[in-house]
Amino acid sequence: MEHHTPKSAAPEATSERLGAHNGDAQSPMDAFRDAGEKLVELKSYVSYYVAAKADQLKTTVRNLVLYAGLGVVGLFIAATAIIMGVAIFCLGFAYTLTAAFGGRAWAGFLVAGFVIVALIAAGAFVGYLMVTRSARKRMVEKYEQLQHQQRLEFGNDVCLRAEEAGRD
């Protein structure tokens, strides 16, 4: 039979059983307590980091809203200045025509209005033609490039195949 020497029954005092030698290491309870304290510290650091990132996001959003507001105000100011300039020009043109028509204001304003509307319509029509011609030219170039690629790759293209199918 073995003879056991009495040791302390408290688990804290039996650290030798769990790998500690000569009091060099902590008891498991001390390790768990230290880990808990480190976990609380880590939680504090993580919440600090998250709060800082949230505040950074709020600041960024606030700045974006402020700059957007300033941009809108600037746009309104620029649009107002342009509209006022055009209106003053149109009035000056109408009054010039009024003087040319011998002081008949109705004739000067009527002709000025007609000329201005005609210029706007002509500008819109020319712009429409330019846009549609440019788009058509790009589209034709795109399909010509595709046909060229087909001829290089297959020795034929869709148009030649369609002609062949029409002859059969």
What does this structure look like?
Helix content is 79%, strand content 0%. It has two domains: 25-100; 104-168. The N and C termini lie far apart (110 Å). It is an all-alpha fold and 168 residues long. Residues 6-20 have low confidence and may be disordered.
How are the elements arranged and paired?
Layout: H1 28-100, H2 105-154, H3 158-167
Helix pairs in contact: 1-2
Task: Identify low-pLDDT runs.
Answer: 6-20
Sheet having the most strands: none
Shape: flat
CA-CA gap between termini: 110 Å
% residues in beta strands: under 5%
Radius of gyration: 43 Å
Number of strands: 0
User: Helix/strand/pairing class, anyone?
Assistant: mainly alpha
Level of helix content? over 70%
Order of helices and strands: HHH
Q: How would you state the average pLDDT, rounded?
A: 87
Compose a concise summary of this entry:
With 168 residues, the chain is an all-alpha fold. The chain has helices at residues 28-100, 105-154, 158-167. It has two domains: 25-100; 104-168.
